[in-house]
Design a protein that fits this description.
The complex is a heterodimer of chains A (about 375) and B (about 325). Chain A is mostly beta strands. Chain A is about 10% helix and about 40% strand. The chains are: A mainly beta (about 375), B mainly beta (about 325).
């Protein structure tokens, strides 16, 4: 007999979550690949709706898609979009992202991005947003909750728009760290795009973010009689793999430190009204010092327990097993037969080989040994 | 594929085969794992030294050091040799498959492997017999009407028959002894490239394949009692028998050339080459011919015995 049937006790299904750490340094995002004043790893499109960041010049087959960046302005924003061309597309982007990620209210109206995810309350809405959809290559099935972190320089623009090699100075005092604080236990499920968490900014220096803006503050007991203040600044959609950052982190009239020069001499408000999505995207990309998160891959596995009893599989049909039909490993008939297992083949009823498994070293099989080989197929 | 790291714990490298993935994609329920088998294709049992001076712990030292390759995804490349279960643990002999090249079918055909150690299938009428045997323009049939040794007529389905015998090929046991039922093979799987040829029985009846895998390899199941498999009843020493000891069953078949080979030279150009073959005339004049070399694999389902039969498809250029 060559085949041994697998019965119901030999097959079990399991589910495993696999995580990988994804570090994206700012040098990947901007500054590393420049030719004649243009960033080779940044792909821009004639439609001007978004830009794509690669980890290598995108014309190379070695390049991997890392994330996209775009910008949206709600039609309910107080900012009046100037122009009728590329500039207006920010409204379209906001509408598209909001209906996809926030869904509709009972009247069928698209809901705005909400700062704290409490859609029923009249809370703060994010009407000017930067959107960063991460590629599936990095996100896999989803971003792991409470692992997202992004360091962002929110200081004044410090270079030339014609020099893509330019990056902010990333001085510690200018950096904010955006994280999905406590998101493993405090995430929201009222989005049509799956779970999402609130992004909070922590400033390395107190003057970067205005702690008097209590509407945005999330105070957490530090366990030592005081509080740690975090500033709500966006949402992260875990299954969709999309981070939404409010424009307020750079230039809100509500906070006390508005930027006079977000990009190329324009304040963020001016950029949002007058500039193209590409221009806004460049302003953001040059400010990213670091992004990090863990992804999640959901592995559904079927484990086949291949049980090899003492009286089974002790002979071989390997041509070298015989010499003139006589078994090489025996001298006389009463000697124990031995064989060596290197491979497990999994078959269907029609004897079609569906999967193979290789052992890293051969297993000696004789009537005095038994094995259970645990063979796992992941889907 | 690289070797698996065998410096630490034993690990298991599992992959779906390409055929398995194809069935999974079909979604028709055919991807249903119901049984397993164990293989040992890397093992060279001739390294087993049962006379090692240092004792039994050293008998299989070299075998256990055999490096193992990562799993192949090609279904036809894996599990070629399988471990067997026999309830009798005192067996000293196991059956084999032997190509039987000794039996004359009739006066025109002798089932002998051709000079290139391969069966040759003439894929069309012109290659078989240029003009009905009146002259010797073809490769397979002489002007005397005889099919040359080792030639099969892929269009008219005559000529040599491939015969494979199963049993204990040893002189230590008399053929008079009956082969145990456990050791007698009753079902075979035959694999052949479906682009090149089809399986036919000795009467020229086309066999139905079980399935064709992603590499165009057709799988046929042949059972004792059908027109392909029969019991070997001769139990005496006989020059026409390939098995010297107790005999089991015999598989006989011919090959029909595929329509592609019969009507076109495309596959010859893709998969084959050009050679010069002596034509069937008495002068032995050379003819240019295209050829494709392939193997047909026959495997016993119960005993796991296996043989690869070389076949060459030829077509006059």
């Amino acid at each position: 007999m060559t085949f041994k049937p697998l019965n119901e006790n030999d097959v079990v299904n399991t589910r495993t979550l696999l995580h990988e750490a994804i570090p994206l340094t700012g040098s990947i995002v901007s500054g590393s690949y420049v030719t004649a004043g243009a960033a080779d790893n940044l792909k821009v499109y004639s439609h001007g709706m978004f830009q794509t960041v690669y980890d290598y010049p995108y014309l190379s087959s070695s390049a991997n898609h890392v994330f996209d960046v775009t910008c949206g302005v709600s039609s309910q924003s107080g900012l009046a979009i100037v122009g009728t061309g590329m500039e207006r597309k920010k409204n379209n982007i906001y509408g598209q992202m909001a209906q996809l990620l926030m869904g509709y209210d009972v009247t069928g109206s698209v809901q705005l991005f909400d700062e704290d995810g409490d859609l029923l309350a009249v809370g703060e809405k994010m009407k000017e947003i930067f959107v960063m959809p991460f590629s599936r290559l990095l996100v896999k099935d989803e971003i792991k909750k409470q692992t997202f972190s992004m360091n962002l320089d929110i200081s004044e623009f410090g270079g030339s728009s014609t020099d893509p090699n330019w990056g902010q100075g990333f001085a510690p005092a200018d950096l904010i760290t955006i994280t999905d604080l406590n998101a493993s236990t405090e995430y929201r499920v009222n989005s049509p795009a799956g779970d999402y968490g609130i992004l909070y900014a922590t400033a390395s220096a107190p003057n970067v973010l205005d702690v008097n803006e209590t509407n945005h503050i999330y105070a957490v007991d530090d366990g030592a009689g005081g509080t740690n203040n975090y500033w709500r600044c966006g949402l992260i959609f875990y299954q969709a793999g999309i981070a939404v950052i409010t424009g307020s982190v750079f230039d809100s009239l509500l906070v006390g430190n508005p930027l006079a020069d977000f990009y190329d001499g324009d304040s963020l408000a001016t950029s949002l009204t007058d500039s193209t999505i590409d221009t806004l995207g460049k302003g953001l990309l040059h400010r990213i010092e670091n992004i990090q998160f863990n992804n999640t891959t959901e592995l559904n596995s079927t484990v086949y327990f291949c049980r090899v009893n003492h009286n089974e599989f002790n002979y071989s049909s390997n041509p070298t097993y015989l010499e003139d039909s006589r078994i090489r490993v025996k001298t006389q008939s009463t000697d124990e037969p031995v064989s060596y297992i290197t491979t497990v083949g999994l078959y269907n009823d029609r004897n079609e080989l569906l999967a193979t498994a290789k052992l890293s070293e051969s297993l000696k099989k004789s009537p005095s040994t038994e094995f259970t080989i645990r063979t796992r197929l992941d889907y | 594929m690289g070797f698996l790291d065998n410096s630490g714990d034993i690990i298991l490298d599992v992959v779906l085969t390409d055929h398995g993935r194809m069935l999974l994609a079909k979604g028709d329920g055919s991807f249903q794992i119901t049984k397993f088998a164990l293989g040992d294709e890397e093992i060279d049992y001739s390294l087993y030294d049962k006379n090692h001076a240092s004792g039994s712990a050293y008998y299989d030292l070299e075998i256990l050091q055999t490096p193992i390759l990562e799993a192949f995804t090609n279904n036809a490349s894996s599990m070629k040799t399988r471990l067997q279960t026999y309830t009798n643990l005192e067996l000293l002999f196991l059956p084999v498959l032997r190509l039987n090249e000794a039996i004359s079918i009739n006066d025109r055909t002798e089932n002998t492997v051709a000079s290139d150690n391969t069966f040759i299938v003439a894929v069309d009428a012109a290659t078989e017999d240029g003009n009905g045997g009146s002259t010797d323009t073809g490769l397979a049939v002489t002007s005397a009407g005889k099919v040359r040794k080792g030639f099969m007529l892929g269009e008219s389905l005559g000529g040599s028959i491939i015969k494979v015998d199963q049993g204990l090929d040893t002189i230590e046991i008399s053929p008079k002894r009956r082969l145990d039922d456990d050791l007698k093979e009753t079902s075979y799987i035959l694999q052949m490239d479906n682009r090149l040829g089809k399986l036919v029985d000795t009467q020229g009846t086309l066999a139905a394949f079980d399935y064709i895998d992603d590499d165009n390899v057709a799988y046929y199941t042949l059972d004792l009692g059908d027109t392909f498999v029969s019991e070997i009843t001769v139990d005496t020493k006989d020059s026409k028998e390939a098995i010297r000891g107790p005999r089991g069953t015999r598989v006989e078949f011919r090959i029909q050339s595929s329509m592609d080979l019969n009507t076109s030279s495309f596959l010859f150009e893709q998969l084959g080459a050009l050679t010069t073959l002596a034509d069937s005339g008495t002068t032995g004049a050379a003819s240019n011919a295209m050829f494709i070399d392939t193997n047909i694999r026959l495997t016993g389902i119960k005993t796991g015995v296996m043989i690869d039969i070389p076949v060459r498809y030829v077509k006059l250029a």
